[in-house]
């Protein structure tokens, strides 16, 4: 039954969509767009080795007023493995083909987290080459990676992980206590990420991770005039990544992990983390002449798990900017 505000009935479904060589599973929730409508669809692009199930709280809120698509990347969840390696460019091409074959046309608002920042930029590059960049009318970058992330804040530094060795990430960072998923959603999320199938695909993505930064940097997207996103709205949501790593450091030291030299490298990372991280996040604003940044002060890296409302508010801002110019 439609609401008094004229919002179409909310639906939720999953579809297995063939890409030719393999199939991906697409999940759609929220009000269906009327035929010929220019109502945008939110497309969620999760981070490195991350399950889409972690976005349940965000999707639950967004789907009350806008259509939302999420999907299992190749090799995860109910999606087939791809015959191609999971480079950022290949993942972007598969997402484009998935939306095309599923009949989910633009306009789109991309919501991208962590490595999803790189993936979303490759997706935008693909659309630009095909003269379809106008299909993306807004972008929400959630604690997202960019070209210079590993140059400035190399979170994969071996010294950090010597101190954080054998820690339970969910426990040490407090995610198991502070997430906003239901108990059932959290259990499903943890079970999915712990599965052997998920872990196998995660290793494949991790093998392609570092190279993806140089590949994107070579495209010089942020130097373009006009900007890649033109004047379309871009909202940058920054988490306090330092919060996670402070907790990891404390738990690792309590466990006796790391040499004093390794701990000192970790402490130096923490001393400069916020300043460097905020600088990196602000650079995302170069993608558009119409952008803003918000900081999720109570979150670490996984804002979608701990402060989903901030992401929902970011989408509402992007949507409002789009609708105000689409009149």
TrEMBL record:
GO terms for cellular component: endoplasmic reticulum. Coiled coil: none annotated. This is AB hydrolase-1 domain-containing protein. It comes from Amorphotheca resinae ATCC 22711. Residues 42-314 form the AB hydrolase-1 domain. Pfam families: Abhydrolase_6.
